[in-house]
Structure to design on (444 residues):
């Protein structure tokens, strides 16, 4: 029998132990008359025990334990008759298949780089191969700590339980001194922001902005604001840097008083995030920024889906994770955005939920829509709509708190704006979702 058709390599779903396999779901394109079993098996063999031709040491015993197992191939649409294929598909057309391939956990264990080498690997150089999802068995996930704090831990630190949380990114993004940043920090904090973070573009030490001085001045601003507003403020300091400097940056920030740290996850790598999250000395929440991740996900026929990256970021310990929304600057599918939120918050064996952090052009007029999508266990990521408020950052923050309060009470934002000047000014400038095109605000 041709090895590509062997029941050993093409078992029934019911004939495998799923706790021994990480099951990747691929979208795979093939030519009109290409054999999909051979196509998918070629991928599975290439990524596990074999190569493009038989090799002597790849015995049946090796294949049984360590070769990929193809447990499902489904064409879309689901053709049964060749006559329909001949009629429907052009001679130079592409047929698409959803394929489910199980990779032995023994090949990977808890090694994230080896996971990428195995499930993505060389095959990402092929046209029309996309990773849609990976199902991780408990035997694999149990070796990951996941979020140290998660949703409940962050709420406990802030003492806020009955409403969404509000974040602000300091603007301008970079190029400012610690003194300038602390002034902006104070204004946003005293206006009612819960978590203030550095932008993704200012990480570690900069020639114009020292990490420890930034932390000390911003935490002093937080303490001053907290006394006035009667609430706590968390500061997510961006420690992003070369991997060799990350833990030193983290400890310098914590020793300087930081109560949260932030990293650009796909710049430093998921394994680097994991090493920070699982270090017992790093005893503050970690905010994960998603920048650069979209370069993996944006093609519909290549790369990897946002669902996979969200799962992995949660597994590797992000306490809160930025998810770009479809209603602001970015033209994302609402379905994928909502899926990322439930991937953060749904049960994932024993891992704590990651707090969804929604950003990308959030304005007060979007709050009702965002809460309808995500509920109250969410962190609203706001930058320019606080610092760009014409009455100043304090007013910008108060406008958001007013919008949040109204949305939670089921009051329309336009009604709430009648008695709140800060909110009225925001809605007048940036609009309200459902009443006008909020997208007009964004140049990209």
């Amino acid at each position: 029998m041709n090895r590509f058709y062997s029941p050993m390599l093409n078992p029934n779903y019911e004939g495998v132990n799923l706790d021994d396999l990480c099951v990747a779901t691929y979208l795979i394109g093939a030519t009109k008359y290409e054999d999909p079993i051979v196509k998918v098996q070629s991928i599975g063999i290439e990524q596990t025990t074999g190569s493009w031709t038989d090799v002597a040491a790849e015995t049946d015993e090796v294949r049984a334990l360590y070769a990929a197992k193809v447990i499902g191939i489904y064409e879309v649409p689901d053709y049964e008759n060749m006559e329909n294929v001949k009629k429907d598909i052009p001679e130079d057309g592409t047929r698409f298949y959803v394929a489910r391939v199980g990779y032995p956990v023994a090949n990977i264990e808890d090694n994230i780089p080896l996971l990428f080498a195995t499930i993505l690997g060389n095959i990402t150089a092929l046209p029309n191969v996309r990773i849609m999802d990976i199902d991780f068995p408990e035997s694999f996930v149990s070796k990951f700590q996941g979020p140290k704090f998660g949703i409940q831990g962050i709420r406990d630190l802030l003492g806020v339980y009955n409403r969404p949380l509000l974040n602000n990114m300091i603007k301008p993004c970079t190029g400012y001194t610690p003194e300038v940043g602390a002034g902006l920090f104070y204004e946003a904090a005293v206006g009612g922001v819960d978590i203030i973070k550095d932008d993704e573009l200012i990480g570690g030490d900069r020639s114009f902005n020292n990490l420890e001085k930034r932390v000390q001045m911003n935490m002093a601003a937080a303490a001053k604001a907290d006394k006035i507003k009667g609430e706590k403020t968390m500061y997510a300091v961006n420690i992003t840097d070369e991997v060799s400097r990350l833990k030193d940056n983290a400890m310098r920030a914590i020793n300087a008083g930081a109560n949260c740290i932030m990293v650009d996850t796909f710049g430093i790598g998921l394994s680097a995030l994991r090493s920070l999250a699982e270090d017992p000395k790093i005893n503050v929440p970690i905010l994960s920024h998603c920048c650069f991740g979209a370069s993996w996900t944006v093609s519909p026929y290549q790369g990897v889906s946002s669902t996979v990256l969200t799962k992995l970021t949660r597994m590797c310990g992000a306490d809160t994770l930025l998810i770009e929304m479809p209603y602001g600057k970015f033209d994302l599918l609402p379905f994928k955005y909502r899926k990322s939120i439930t991937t953060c918050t749904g049960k994932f064996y024993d891992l704590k939920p990651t707090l969804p952090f929604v950003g990308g052009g959030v304005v007060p007029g979007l709050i009702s829509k965002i809460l309808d999508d995500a509920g109250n266990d969410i962190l609203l990521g706001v930058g320019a709509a606080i610092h760009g408020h014409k009455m100043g950052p304090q007013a910008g923050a108060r406008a958001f708190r007013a919008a949040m309060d109204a949305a939670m009470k089921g009051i329309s934002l336009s009604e709430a704006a009648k008695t709140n000047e800060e909110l009225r000014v925001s809605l007048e400038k940036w609009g309200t979702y459902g009443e006008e095109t909020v997208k007009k605000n964004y140049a990209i």
